[in-house]
Predict the 3D structure of the following.
Amino acid sequence: MWLWERGKRTRVVNKKADFFGVRPGETCLIVLAEKHNAPGSSQRGDVRATVELAMLAGELGCDVLLESGAFRGSNGARTEFCVGGPLGGANVRTGGHLAAHLPGVTIHPFGSGPDSVAIAVGGERYRYDHDHQEYALVAKFTPAESSRPVVLVCGQSSLANQAAIHFLRREYASVAEGLESVDRFCLLIRISDIGTYAFHRTTLERDVTQAAFAPA
C-alpha cells in the first residue's frame, strides 16, 4: 500500500514539474519586477507572487535564485520565472521576452483611455478594470540559447501576477489537460470581483498559444 501511495505522490510531483518546466534538484531563477520609479523595491503583490513561486520550488525540490528585471543574459540551464509587466520599466526583461518570443501579443501603455494597460492578442483586447476585473498572460517557451524554459507571468497589476501563479499552482493538472503541449503555451488568466475576493476568484479565460506565438 505504501509503495502505491509513494508512486502516486511521485506521479503528482512529476506532472507538476513538467507543467512548470522544472526538475527536482535544479535551481530556478525568479526575475522580479520593481516598483515604478522606486528601484530596489517591489509591489506587495509581486512579493507575494515570489513567495508562491518559492513554495512551488520547495514542493518540487528546487532551490531559488532571485534577480531584478534588470537581469541580462540567458537563463541557460535554469528554469526562469519572469514576473511582472514591462510598463513603466517595471520589468524590462518581460518586454524583451515578449518582443523576442510572443510577437502576437501587445501590451498597451498607460493612458487615460479604455485601452490603458490592455492586453491585445488573438484579435481581442482584454482591458484593465481596477478593483473589479484584471488579466494576466502566462507563457512558457524555451529560448534557442537555453536548455530550460522561461515561464513568463505578465499581469496588468501585481495582484494579477499573484493571482495567476496562485491559480496555476492549484489548477495546473486541469489546465494541462486542455493544452496541446505543456512545453510551449500561452494562457490568458482572468481575475474577477477583485473588490470582494482579491486574487481568489481566478479562472482560465482563453488559450491564446497559436495567436501569441504567430509572427506579427
Summary: The CA atoms of residues 166 and 189 lie 11 Å apart. The mean pLDDT is 90. The first helix runs from residue 2 to 20.
